[in-house]
Input
Amino acid sequence: MLQIPKFLQSSTQCLHPPTLQPPLPILQVPGVPTSSSFPSIKQCCKLSRRELAIRSNSLLLLLLGSQSIEAFLPSKAEAEEDVVDAGSNAQEQSSNATPTCGDKSPTKRAFLDISIDGAPVGRIVIGIQEDDAPVGAARFRNLVSGAAGVSYRRKEFVKITPNYVQHGGVRSYGVDAELAKSTGSSLEVDKLTEEWESLYEKCPGIKNKAGTVGIIVRDPSKPPPKIKLVARKGKLEIDQEEVGTAPNGTEFVISTKDSPELDASTLVVGRVLEGMEVVERLGQVKTVQENTSSPYFRVAKLIGDKRAVVAERGFNRPYAKVVVTNCGLIQ
Output
């Protein structure tokens, strides 16, 4: 009769113990998962010292790892405090945020009737925002309504670019200046420039967005004044000679697209409420091609050739005659 080897007898005894004993209770450690890879050690099973050492060391490492992880994890109270702090910080940031400009409702409504080469093309309705720029809005309102003694009526658009169209305003000399002077109106640009400077620092981002209307208060392309020596009362004095003419505070632009290049020269006073298709129609009028990239123009401009100055004035001028046939306030 075959005899079972001794090492198989020991294994069979472990698989089929003669007497069943209740298993030892398993220690439940929070954060440590229990799985079949770590079976409970029964008294009937004979494990070597090496196996016992490996299993005990593995269990110890799991215990230490769970404790270290719990040390880094925030408690429930700390998590709630973090959520409260984040909400308060967000409220502080929103309260300290810079106020938005140009989003207020218009206080007055004005209209411009436009014609191209004598053919009417439609009406543009503009909402004047007196809350953001009271000085500039008052200037634009008085010129539209005629309260300044002179108005934009029968005045032309002098510049058309892909991003905006520019109206020539009224003249600060001749008949226009005399009419404005008779009503006590001022066409000076100083107060407009001060208001533009304050709004430029107060309002971040692009000011001249698509559909906005703004008064030109300075010319960013104007060269700096030339310094020269002047003899006065037998003494030589240093004087500054202005090059070119500064805007008189009556020219305005209507942006067909976002025009950040206008932010350094234009005070926004309103926005188009109706007739944006008319503005886009003006933007499609053919104009004199700009030639500032020509090397001949650059050299002539650098040496101060007057022909370059005259040519530059003609860039982007419309071939057609674009006129404001009528304008006023809407009650």
About this structure: The chain is about 35% helix and 20% strand. Residues 49-72 form the longest helix (24 residues). Confidence is low (pLDDT under 50) at residues 5-20, 29-33, 35-44, 92-99. The longest strand covers residues 119-128.
